[in-house]
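Reading a protein record of the kind used here takes only a little practice. Each token is a code from a learned vocabulary of local backbone shapes. With that in mind, consider the following protein and its fold in token form:
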Amino acid sequence: MENTFLDALAMFSAHRDKKSIMFLEYVLKKYFNERRFFMPIKDAIPYLEENDRDQLTTIMEEVA
């Protein structure tokens, strides 16, 4: 199963990782108008700027 933004937010919320939660919310707001909670994280990577892409890739690996 592919991990979605919602899955990642739930996991980081359980671990109280505010930095990762804030970054995921930033990505959703900046690139997808907060409407893609069910989008697999890997599908978002091509749309991001390079720095954001690198950080999201790191987060994606933590969630897997």
Remarks:
- The chain has a mean pLDDT of 94.
- The first helix runs from residue 5 to 14.
